Amino acid sequence: MPSYRLHYFPESGNSYKLALMLVLCGQSFEPVWTDFGGGITRTAAWRANVNPMGEIPVLEEDGVRLTQTGPILLQLAARYGKFGGADARERFEILRWLFWDNQKMSGFMATYRYRRAFTPTPDEKVQAFLRARIDDFLAILAGEVAQRPFIIGDEPTVADLSLCGYLSFPMEESGYDLAVRFPPVAAWLQRIAALPGWRAPYDLLPGQRLPRHV
Question: Which mean pLDDT values do the consecutive 10-residue runs of the chain (214 residues) have?
């Protein structure tokens, strides 16, 4: 079986997606804490030796470094025969929601939450713009998961594990009380949390935390 090392920082929702996928597939990994707050991922040395894209997470698989969360989730799903969809229609739906999540839900929430919780003076006009988009995306997600247990059907897939990544951190960081504002999303997150082996982000991703300003 492959051995895994996960380069991460604890506040990274994309890191959480990979960590959660691994443990739900019964796999262990060596955590490699990365000083994202100190700017290590922006250095030439780190990009030359770890990830030329300058991004976290990075998953090492028997020494081979893999980057970009979506493709890694799909590769793990194929390897372990879990969370990858039952047929061609479901696999298409997974791709559709992964692309939507990367561009919209995770993309906007990651930026909004980071600026709100981990920077001292976020620009309120920028934050208002981001929040308006996130409200729209959460309403779309709520409408979908109100109709079925998981995003594409009765069973969870890597699309759910991707979509939940930045929504699983403490409410204080994002400022979103999902149970009040988007109850179907909160109920869907509870269904994900009921999966055998599930663990919360900061339980899976230890290490020094970023200074929080909220």
Answer: 94 98 97 96 96 97 96 98 97 98 98 97 98 98 98 98 98 98 98 98 96 95
For residues 6 and 57, the answer to whether their CB atoms sit within 8 Å is: yes
Asked whether the CA dihedral 184, 9, 18, 122 is positive or negative, the reply is positive
Beta bridge partners of 195: none
Evaluate whether 9 touches 34 at the Cβ level (below 8 Å): yes
- In whole angstroms, what is the distance from residue 160 CA to residue 151 CA? 6
Q: CA 77, CA 101: separation in Å to the nearest integer?
A: 17
- Written as six digits, the tokens of 210 are 């970023």
Among 85, 90, 98, 106, which Cα is nearest to 15's?
Answer: 106
- Please report the pLDDT score of residue 192 as a whole number: 98
How many whole angstroms separate alpha carbon 138 and alpha carbon 67?
Answer: 27
Tokens of 42: 């922006």
CA 164 – CA 13 distance, rounded (Å): 9
